[in-house]
Specification:
The structure holds 2 protein chains of 2 kinds. By secondary structure, chain A is an alpha+beta fold. Helices cover about 30% and strands about 20% of the residues of chain A. A 7-stranded mixed β-sheet of chain A has the order 8-9-10-1-11-19-12, sandwiched between helices. A 6-stranded mixed β-sheet of chain A has the order 14-18-13-17-15-16. In chain A, helix 9 packs antiparallel against helix 11. Chain A is globular, with a radius of gyration of 25 Å. Chain A starts with a helix and ends with a strand. Chain B starts with a helix and ends in a 7-residue tail after the last helix. Classes of the chains: A alpha+beta, B mainly alpha. Chains A and B meet through helix 1, helix 4, strand 10, helix 7 and helix 13 of A and helix 2, helix 3, helix 5, helix 7 and helix 9 of B.
Chain lengths: ~525, ~350
């Protein structure tokens, strides 16, 4: 009996170590689906990025477009039509060829409500098309007018208006290209744990154990850099503290979305390396024009001056955040206006005087809503809201802190009467200012602050149509100035999400866009 | 007894139908809709309206009174039709059949709950007995203090604490999950410890057991404390009864008096409380499963509620109600085994 138990114990000790060349990632949850175009959550996209490629890729650690499944792309002068030349000799992991038919099959699924194998009657929604590309075939607001196959390796997207950002939107990880054969064969099961998702990416699907982990193996026929590990296991570890525990215990190799206060614990552990992702988000405080007091520009500017943003950023992000006047993260600083100061100067005395001049010498009372959930741009919303409230109380503004369930919060901000002031944020999908300004100042996105002047919409349209960075910079610098002076949204921080890896994990370059292929990662001396 | 069981099962069926109606209406009455939850920060009135329509949630809840010709073109009749044909629908976004998720996740929660209850009983019962037999002694104070700590310590904090010390600092147990990465086990019952043995893989059972210890202690801490307290008070009450004094006066050995005469009667309230704990364990599993990345029902349902995933909430709640009903029935039946005076009609 003793021998039996000993054998079991020793075997189990050995079981704990997977293949030495298997990479184990601590994900912040479980994927919703592995079907491209149909989900927007981060962990689904992280897994999908390993299985699928997109037409356009991005240079490691940046938002600069580089060839993906398309080797080149060009537009007509008005940017109303984009032609993609596809990579030849690429095969899906099931051995079927990648070509123009595959691109059409996938994009028609995303865009055309009547497309074969779109499975819309089975709950597929492709809502990201509405968000990033205005809607679906037949919608008045849809960005895509038509998708045309020119030859086996050339595809043209005709658009309803000039759109210079289309290639990078098409390159975002939502739009992976899947094997048409696999989708047709697996039907509505495709993307669920009971299916076998197939793409052209560096790793191919092995298994998905619900609630536990997704296992992938290296695709040694990959057209790009061949994976340098045998496989990847993406584990579902929802709790950030537990992800840190797993890293420290050595049961996972790398993880993202650690809380900023974990930085010291990571740095003090010799077995770990802190990996700082480039900042690509904005956390901000919005103010509602329907509140008669907040409708006054001087009041909003006074509140902007009363909040000690730098102290808040240092206190709550452990140095992993910057605070400035821009709605855009630092990597897009080229689009900021040089006429706009780096930020409203923190000056409570001047803010108090401005309030008095605006007719509120004794301050006023306002509801300030904070998010009930944690996000990289606001990891601890309640204490941050308390700090803002303390700053505002110093100039006589009585802040009533309020919150509610997240789904209701998102709903109520857009409903009458809306929130007076509230916290929210945005993480970018692609490297263009339009993705940030459009998301919160766009025609469909301004109900929360009820501020939507025609001049702003004109600038947004001009920015979308501008082809060069210089041309874009001219437009977006005007937007920067306009929104800075209007001060309806106070940019609080651009944070650097904290990730960490065991020291033997090399060549991991996280993308600011949220997910990157792991084919270049190698393990030097693991275990 | 047979009639009693049949009657209870019939009542359970009615309860389940009632619950399906209530949960269907309640989840829809909750503020915050699925489209907004799915869209998150991207939600704006247009995108929410579009997605609501795509999900079929723009239809009436129970009956389409606006179009008498299509009276049953509503959400509940469609759902009930599916349920009655054995289909619990699919997750709104994941498209994973709810029945499949229940099948894979329930054994994980069951294994964890059984282990937690085992821990609660193996520690709680002796602690309660010792505290009662050594009333007002150091042992009594110790048992009382442990119960108090067990009840008052937040599960979330206890889980993280145990994980940090026993997994990170001491390295005795894995921090989370059910099996080590790389361990492959084809499920039979879905309970890994048992399946390892059934498959002739004691090494896998041992690995699963090591993963089970910390979450079981975490989840079992509150039931352990409650069991200890109830056992102590129940046993103290019984020990003061005349028949116990009589047994002692007859010269029976103290151990025999305690085990054979007092304990059996003291166990009735304990069994009742343990039965009630079964329902609480399902609720308590939400936090424990989240902390320990345990792929069970609790964390799954929690996510569904946050994301307003109606089919998952409905299927999960109906299933949880079924489990609690069955456990309560088992508890009721066990009374007769403990006390022959109890009869079922």
């Amino acid at each position: 009996m003793k021998k039996y138990i000993l054998t079991a114990f020793l075997s189990a000790s050995l079981l704990g170590s997977a293949s030495a060349a298997t990479l184990v990632y601590g994900g912040n949850g479980e994927p919703v689906s592995l079907e491209p175009g149909n989900v927007t959550d981060g962990i689904s996209l992280t897994v999908q990025r390993q299985i699928y490629d997109t037409l356009v890729d991005f240079k490691d650690g940046t938002t600069d477009a580089v060839p993906g499944l398309a080797v080149s792309w060009r537009s007509n002068p008005a940017a109303t039509s984009w032609t993609f030349n596809l990579r030849k000799n690429v095969k899906f992991q099931d051995g079927t060829p990648f070509n123009a038919d595959a691109v059409l099959f996938n994009w028609n699924r995303f865009w055309d409500p009547k497309a074969d194998s779109g499975f819309r009657d089975q709950g597929r929604t492709y809502e990201i098309m509405g968000d990033l590309l205005g809607g679906f075939k037949g919608d008045k607001t849809a960005v895509i007018k038509d998708i045309v196959k020119l030859d086996d390796y050339t595809v043209r997207f005709d658009l309803t208006g000039g759109n210079s950002v289309f290639p990078v939107v098409a390159g975002s990880s939502y739009f992976g290209i899947a094997s048409p054969t696999a989708i047709k064969a697996q039907g509505t099961k495709y993307g669920t744990p009971a299916s076998t998702p197939v793409g052209t990416g560096p790793f191919s699907f092995v298994s998905w154990k619900t609630g536990d982990a997704v296992t992938l193996k290296a695709n040694m026929s990959y057209w790009g850099t061949k994976p340098r590990v045998d496989g990847v296991v993406i584990r579902s570890i929802k709790d950030a503290s537990q992800r840190l525990n797993e890293l420290k215990a050595g049961t996972i190799d790398f993880a993202s979305d650690l809380t900023p206060d974990s930085l010291a614990a990571v740095r003090s552990d010799k077995a770990l390396t802190a990996v700082l992702k480039p900042s690509f988000n904005v956390g901000f405080v919005s103010m509602n024009n329907k509140n008669p007091i907040l409708a006054k520009q001087a009041v909003r500017q006074a509140l902007s001056m009363a909040i000690n943003k730098k102290a808040i950023a240092e206190g709550f992000w452990n140095g992993l955040a910057v605070s400035n006047s821009s709605f855009l993260p630092p990597v897009m600083g080229w689009a900021n206006s040089k006429d706009v100061p780096s930020d409203y100067k923190y000056d409570p005395a001047a803010a108090k005087k401005m309030l008095a001049d605006a007719g509120y010498p004794n301050g006023f009372s306002v509801d300030f809503w904070y998010m009930p959930v944690s996000r990289p741009y606001f990891p601890t919303p309640k204490p941050i809201a308390e700090a803002v409230a303390a700053d505002l109380s110093a100039i006589g503004v009585k802040v009533n802190l309020r919150t509610e369930d997240w789904a209701k919060y998102l709903q109520d901000r857009n409903k009458e009467p809306g929130f007076d002031m509230y916290m929210i944020g945005w993480t970018g999908d692609y490297g263009d200012p339009d993705n940030f300004y459009g998301a919160y100042y766009g025609a469909n996105a301004s109900d929360d602050i009820n501020y939507n002047p025609a001049s702003l919409q004109t600038l947004l349209e001009q920015g979308r149509a501008a082809l060069t960075q210089d041309a874009k910079a001219k437009v977006y610098s005007q937007l920067h100035k306009l929104t800075y002076e209007a001060a309806y949204r106070i940019p609080m921080v651009h944070s650097q999400p904290l990730a960490a890896a065991r020291t033997y994990v090399k060549n991991w370059v996280p993308s600011p866009l949220g997910s990157e292929a792991w084919n270049k990662i190698l393990l030097v001396g693991k275990r | 007894m047979g009639v009693f069981v049949l009657r209870r099962l019939w009542r359970t069926l009615l309860v389940l139908i009632g619950i399906s109606v209530v949960v269907f209406a309640f989840v829809r009455a909750l503020p915050g809709d699925p489209a907004t939850a799915i869209l998150g920060e991207r939600a704006n009135p247009e995108s929410v309206a579009r997605l609501t329509k795509q999900l079929g949630l723009d239809k009436p809840w129970f009956l389409n009174l606006a179009e008498p010709g299509r009276l049953f073109d509503a959400q509940y009749p469609k759902y009930l039709g599916k349920v009655l044909s054995g289909d619990l629908d699919k997750g709104q976004k994941s498209q994973i059949p709810v029945a499949d998720e229940l099948k894979s996740r329930f054994p994980a929660t069951l294994e964890l709950s059984l282990a937690a209850m085992f821990f609660a009983l193996i520690v709680g019962l002796p602690a309660g007995i010792v505290a009662a037999l050594r009333r007002n002694s150091v042992w009594d104070s110790l048992a009382t203090t442990i119960s108090l700590v067990g009840v008052s310590m937040p599960v979330f904090w206890l889980g993280l604490l145990l994980s940090y010390y026993f997994a990170v600092v001491l390295g005795w147990f894995p921090p989370s999950s059910r099996l080590s990465v790389g361990v492959d086990l084809q499920p039979l019952t879905g309970m890994d410890v048992l399946d390892g043995l059934l498959r002739g893989r004691p090494d896998v059972s041992w690995d699963a057991l090591r993963h089970l210890v910390l979450p079981a202690i975490t989840l079992g801490s509150i039931p352990m404390a409650i069991t200890a307290r109830i056992t102590r008070s129940s046993l103290l009450e019984v020990l003061g009864q005349d028949y116990v004094r009589t047994a002692k006066a007859k010269g029976l050995a103290p151990r025999l008096v305690t085990l054979k005469h007092a304990m059996r009667n003291a166990m009735l309230p304990v069994v009742t409380v343990v039965g009630l704990q079964a329902g609480l364990l399902l609720g308590g599993a939400v936090l424990t499963e989240t902390i320990f990345s345990w792929p069970g029902l609790g964390s799954w349902l929690y996510d569904a509620i946050s994301g307003r995933d109606y089919p998952v909430i409905q299927g999960g709640v109906i299933f949880a109600a079924l489990v609690v009903s069955v456990v309560n029935l088992a508890v009721d039946l066990s009374y007769a085994l403990l006390d022959p005076r109890i009869q079922y009609r």
